[in-house]
Design a protein that fits this description.
The protein contains 19 helices and no strands. It is mainly α.
Length: 471
């Protein structure tokens, strides 16, 4: 029989149950500002750095790859810092790092200087997501936490679109002036985002700091959470293909003009920004694991449709068919993104949330690191091999999510304690199979409290989650 005792010295979590309207506005405003910066930088990375530094594209590509790989090594330290100081303080720091890095890019006149700045920017970029989600985890619980994650996700898509338009306007300037302006604009928006986060009240207490014996050993022993992370790694290839492989497929195999290939990205971004919050409200009615798995299945259906397009359409009807499949792809993203992201935050214990989210972030980071090689190989293999492999990956991710469901905490699987299909009576040991007695005991307090009080607490929040008040 498993040891279900609860340690009396277990770290206590003290997040606010529902942040006030001013805190929510500052949080979403900071997200919007940061995503505008991403929208300016991400689509123009190579051109931006080539113009500012004068280095060859090959040197820049190699430098960015090295910087990205080195930045991954900093992710464990990011988790430790989040657990030690809280998501808010770490997020302020990484936003400041990004602001400093972009402000310094125009002065990177040597290759070592470029590599140093690229590493600073990469560390800030990879660390932003876990620290942002940890901050949201500190601020709210249950349905309100899902709501804040949904607004963060939707505004990030809207900000990316606005940033891309701003970048296009800056490029209209002659010479390198537009890129210098872009660099300083990037520094300004990330600095503004850091200021907005700094104005969010501090809600963590010293009691949440993990004991010395807690740490990544517990994360690595948490098999259900590692399954969730593995599932996200597999499904993440479905997200990366939109920017890395889809434009090549559309222009080469569907024969769309280059100018029209970007319409698919624009449609996807607009739909996710507009429908992200309503889709989250819809997925709250289901278990997070099953809703995310359904999204992965819809992804697979869209990949099958993309594979069939070269054999079914051509000429003026091609664009209509492509946009139809793109809407199906977006539906998969809307169904998967909200519950999977919420699952990663809800399943992490409060006192080790930083470490857990840093490990989860590796599923995105590693995928984006290896995706160019894999997707390039599959594109060269033929017009349908890419979509067949992607469909297999996301369906495997869906199966892994469903396998993890039984051993995840009840409050993580669903937004109420009732009807989540998890055996046990609310103790940590009955819910978390395979974690081990030590890890179960450490997480028992959080799981007991969450399961025992989930029904009444989250039902009340669900009734309040019917509109966009306080956005």
């Amino acid at each position: 029989m498993e040891d279900t005792s609860v340690r009396s010295d277990a770290p206590a979590a003290v997040p606010a149950s529902r942040p006030d309207a001013r805190t929510r506005r500052r949080l979403v405003s900071a997200s919007l500002a940061g995503s505008i910066g991403d929208g300016i930088y991400v689509p123009l990375t190579m051109l931006f750095l080539h113009s500012l530094t004068g280095l060859s594209l090959t040197s820049i590509g190699a430098g960015l790859t090295v910087a990205g790989l080195c930045a991954l090594a900093f992710m464990p330290a990011t988790g430790v810092l989040i657990d030690r100081f809280g998501g808010r303080r770490v997020l302020i720091g990484v936003l400041a790092l990004r602001a400093i890095g972009f402000a310094a890019y125009p002065f990177a006149d040597t290759y070592p200087a470029f590599l140093t700045i690229a590493l600073v920017v990469a560390v800030g970029m990879w660390a932003s997501s876990p620290s942002q989600h940890a901050l949201i985890g500190d601020l709210a619980r249950g349905v309100e936490r899902d709501r804040l994650l949904a607004w963060d996700r939707s505004l990030r898509n809207a900000g990316m679109g606005c940033g891309s338009l701003a970048a296009a306007g800056m490029l209209a300037w002659n010479g390198t002036t537009g890129f210098v302006v872009a660099a300083e604009a990037l520094a300004a928006v990330f600095a503004l985002s850091a200021v907005l986060v700094a104005r969010i009240p501090h809600v963590r207490g010293r009691a949440e700091r993990p004991a010395a014996r807690d740490g990544y050993r517990q994360v690595l022993a948490d098999r259900p959470y590692l399954l969730v992370t593995t599932a996200n790694f597999l499904v993440a290839f479905g997200y990366t293909t939109q920017a890395m492989a889809l434009p090549v497929f559309l222009t080469r195999d569907i024969a769309l003009p280059d100018a029209l290939a970007g319409i698919v990205f624009a449609v996807n971004t607009a739909l996710v920004a507009l429908l992200g919050v309503p889709a989250t409200r819809l997925t709250l009615r289901a278990r997070r694991t099953r809703a995310a798995a359904l999204g992965a299945v819809v992804f697979a259906l869209s990949f099958a449709a993309f594979a069939a397009l070269p054999h079914l359409v051509g000429g003026p009807n091609a664009l209509v068919a492509v946009l139809t499949v793109a809407v199906l792809y977006t539906a998969g993203e809307l169904l998967h993104s909200a519950p999977s992201q919420s699952l990663s935050v809800q399943a992490a214990p409060d006192h080790l949330r930083g470490r857990y989210l840093s490990v989860y972030q590796l599923s995105w980071s590693v995928c984006r690191t290896v995706a160019p090689l894999l997707l390039g190989f599959l594109l060269d293999a033929g017009p349908w091999q890419l979509w067949a492999v992607l469909a297999l990956l996301v369906l495997t991710g869906a199966a892994v999510l469903l396998c993890a469901e039984r051993s995840l905490p009840a409050h993580a699987v669903g937004t109420s304690g009732a009807g989540v299909g998890v055996s046990g009576t609310g103790d940590g040991g009955g819910i978390r199979a395979g974690v081990g007695a030590g890890a179960t005991a450490r997480r028992g307090a959080a799981d007991q409290q969450a399961v025992a009080g989930a029904a009444g607490r989250d039902d009340a929040r669900r009734s309040a989650y019917t509109g966009t008040t306080g956005r």
